[in-house]
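Q: Give me the 3D complex with glutathione.
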Amino acid sequence: MADRVDYTPPKVWAWNQENGGTWASINRPVSGPTHDKPLPIGRHPLQLYSLGTPNGVKVTVMLEELLALGHAGAEYDAWLIKIGEGDQFGSGFVTVNPNSKIPALLDRSEATPIRVFESGAILLYLAEKFGAFLPTKGAARAECLSWLFWQMGSAPYLGGGFGHFYAYAPTKIEYAIDRFAMEVKRQLDVLDKRLAENEYLAGTAYTIADIAVFPWYGGLVKGWSYDAAEFLQVQAYTNVQRWADVILQRPAVQRGRMVNRVRGELSSQLHERHDASDFETKTQDKLTAAT
Ligand SMILES: N[C@@H](CCC(=O)N[C@@H](CS)C(=O)NCC(=O)O)C(=O)O
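A: Here is the predicted complex, encoded as structure tokens.
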């Protein structure tokens, strides 16, 4: 039972399909597709299959930033993958990401389409493809990649650890919440010290490191995640706050945060993006008013 505190693990773990957790009904201990469902394909070179979570937002921000720089080859179709309904286990999605997690990208600009999964790999792929937001050499490149991979290694403690036990687990387990709250505060302190001495994570330039870290830790200090701003005393991280405020002012970040978003103000939700004009005409407030 999920609420037992005196649990002794059995010799062999068995799958308790209804353990009461938020993701209990969709997660399984095996990989692979559960049903046949081809992915839709739009007219642009890049096809993104995603959802407006922090991992998804990294990629839509990157694509909007590339378009803002004038890279027409970064035009994309963003399709909605409803992970709460199990879309990530459709056969088409599993072909693009065998790990069944958003975001997943299909680059159809090459003779043979290239699939890319894992948000960090997608950011790196796009940065190299377009020669943008990634310093080309030396210390700046090393810092950029270090902070990019720091994010990939750290955020599971924030999302899968702290967020899961603080917000989603069916019982509040003090040990687990304490362990992960401490780690998340330590991570915020790491960022705060770095950003006390540097405008951006890699130094003076805005890079894929900022694009990766912002949706997780910027979102946390802005109070968007897990309703935990007071609990974690996020206002204390003044340098992270300053950095998040600067990033939030970027129009591409504002647009990227709207794509595949299914929560919040209807005017902030653009469920699918197939054209730059969609931000003006296809947000949920406009679609709802039209029906
Ligand atoms: N390390 C992966 C994590 C991706 C991930 O955890 N995606 C979540 C949403 S943020 C997901 O698709 N969850 C669905 C599931 O676990 O079934 C990345 O950065 O791309």
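A quick observation: The two ends are 46 Å apart (CA to CA).
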